[in-house]
Records
---
Amino acid sequence: MQLIMESSKPHVAIISSPGMGHVIPCLELAKCLVSYHDVEVSFFVPSTEASVQQTQLLESLVVPEDLHIIKLPPVDISNIVPINNEIVARLTLIVQESLPDVRSEILKSPRPPTVLISDMFSTHAFEIADDFKMAKYLFCTFSATVLAYMMYTPKLAQETNIDSQEIPESLNVPGCKPVLVQDLGGRDRLFHLNGGKVQSVFGHIYNYAKASAILVNTFEDLEPQTLQGLSDDNVRWTIPMPPLYPVGPIIKSAESPSIGKSDYYLAWLDNQPSGSVLFISFGSGGTLSADQTNELALGLELSKQRFLWVVRPPQDFTPAAYISAVGGVNDPSEYLPDGFLTRTSGIGLVIPNWVSQIDVLNHGSIGAFLSHCGWNSILESLVNGVPLLTWPLYAEQHWNAMMLTQDFGVAVQLAKASEEGVVGRERIERAVRLVMEEEEGKVLRNRAKELKSSAIKTMGKDGSSYGSLSKLVKKWNEIS
Ligand code: UDP
Ligand code: UDP
């Protein structure tokens, strides 16, 4: 305690919203600041509706001295929001209801934090920053491109009537290539512009504009034009655009203690030839319909490629399923095609619910990744030089999938944003073979390797992302 009192290093509070896609990058940012930038961090995370994985992640953590993990006590939101309400509204409410606990923790602190970093959906914590005169920052756990789009939506809302069908056919977001709304899956799939969703996301977008700066989990070589466009003083945004600091890729490292590290699937991978296995995963909460799960299984079988598939029981998404993810019994033989597990035994491995994805992607026998295109998954794939097959499901994943194929050149499009219905087994077979066996796969792999080396360089001491974080820490030193 004495040491903390005397310390002059900046003390930063990071507030994460629930869900592994948020907690993982926020926690990694915290670790990065503590380990490489001599910062003290208090990391606040709601325990409301925490998934099994989230709880295990926090429990298995080896915490460095200057990182304080504060699990906020559970809050009851059942009277405020119906159980099946949409995800962003729900995350927002959980964070909002947890704010009194954040406040009392800060009041108790012998050396209160002077900087507050919120993630994309915990920006209501900015009111605490104002009360305690802390500097406000945003950690964008999405790409710069999606951030650009989000900052553009107030203008879009001004120019069009979101509740009617008057969304333009193409979007011209500063810094981004013009994009056809149809390529993003049409009006209804356009990022959260449906139902009541736009309202809950808008509250956050207006808060983004109040941040002193935005830390973005990307790097200059990955999104050069967008980063430039977003920082261009001549571009007029409807709401103020804070300065941007590309600080990524901030991802889990394969060496860190992780869930299921000693698991049998890593031993299975050890026995497969280099670059021979397709990894299939739909993030922390993605599921497919029963028909689609069936076609995917049969497509994989037809392709005759080795695979490691993380499976969940087919079901419609529900926010509760997303957050509490995958409790309960999951027996893949109950929903995979008859005989599939026996016929593919030795070639494929089916893992229920969860693997330590970073350890899998880091394994030399992985040749490609069929992904739902969550931003964390994409960064993890790129850092390991693994090309992708895109299968976006919801939220901003359609945009990410498009970037992977059109801008980064590291992926083959498998499922399209604009189509309805089931993706057939033949198309799955062709796409899998293309990446695993053919010349095009080699081209994608080489491009992925290029991005891998720039990702590693940018996080090194002379790299631009490392430099961005150093600049921020210098500012924080001045105010601490
Ligand atoms: N993840 C994992 N094992 C799994 C599924 C997901 O370790 O079986 C991790 C993955 O490595 C990533 C995060 O959970 O860090 C998912 O984040 P992403 O942004 O890719 O997708 P989301 O789950 O938010 O849709
Ligand atoms: N969903 C989810 N996790 C998220 C966002 C959405 O599980 O991070 C679920 C959500 O509850 C909804 C389903 O995905 O039932 C389909 O979302 P939709 O395509 O309507 O969302 P959008 O793409 O417009 O965000």
Note: The chain has 18 helices and 15 strands.
---
Amino acid sequence: MIVGQTGESSDAMFARGASSLVGRAGGRLSCCHAELSPPRVSAPTRGSSAPLSPTTLFGDDPHRRLNILTGEWVLVSPHRMKRPWQGQIEEIPPDNRPAYDPTCYLCPGNERAGGHRNPNYTGPWAFDNDFAALRPGDGGRRLDTDGLLVARQEPGICRVICFSPRHDLSLPQMEVPAIRGVVDLWAEEYARLGARDDVGHVQIFENKGEVMGSSNPHPHGQIWAQQTVPLHPERERLHLLAHHERHRRTLLEDYLRLELEMGERLVCSNDAWVALVPFWAVWPFETLVLSRRPASHLGQLDDRERDLLADVIKQLTARYDALFNVSFPYSAGIHQAPTDGAPHPESHLHLHFYPPLLRSATVRKFLVGYEMMAEAQRDLTPEAAAERLRESVRKR
Ligand code: ZN
């Protein structure tokens, strides 16, 4: 495994990135009423006029925003930020973990389920999940009864990746070179699993925090590699493909250019990566991390881009932790090209962070009611969320 040199410090990176985080509003209306299905390609034909901020156009008025990656809409209701909150107060588990926990099944040297024993690993380390949701196989069985009962066998492999031998560290608490080691292991696993005949898609993700269902506080993520491109990346792939076929640029390349021009949804950045609250964010402090240079997958990143990916992950997750002064829970994942052997120039490597917290360490958002029955909805605007994250600084 290659571990690169330490990059510029996060604070220095942010100080430099912050100078470009100047929001701009005004100009003429550039309105896009894109349809859902099939993916409609909206040509970036605004010309030289400045893009109009949704804050300027809608103010506190309810409006719907289109997720250009998925074709889904989200209802935004800024005026509701004024109502009183009478919701759930969650217990915050004390964060006093030891560096090594003899009862943790992920710590080095400890025994796992089924009698497996962990090696005395010293850096990031991956192994087959003892309770895998997928099994390797041929995937040949199909069920189709009158087009009404339809099912397909799904082969695959589930892996667990420990970010560090240290039980008490999360990504924002790790040093950038150590996070770079995780980036390298992600790239290795993507290449190795993706090369298999029974794997067409590799999903790397992390559930962080009890509130997100993480069963063990030891910092770790997962990798589920399977034959089929699953629902969410497949939906995104269709929109990425439609845009690339028309413009010969990636959808996220064009989107990033616009976000850099406007500035109001940017959170932090460095020379290779930008973290922003997407225009169509559903979760209160949802972010999207985009590579400035379109790369289809981790294997296409050079040494410097890998260092800087580690840097932007640390910058962003440290901001999350500082926001409500708590180890910020989230589900995060990497979207990259399917591993079907095709080149996929439409693919643009990106990371999604979906954190549930809304107003404090104890007040979270639920996707229920209208959101289960109709569509996603949020009160805090993505612009306001980005501003909160930009202002968030490490307090501990
Ligand atoms: Zn995505």
Note: The two ends are 32 Å apart (CA to CA).
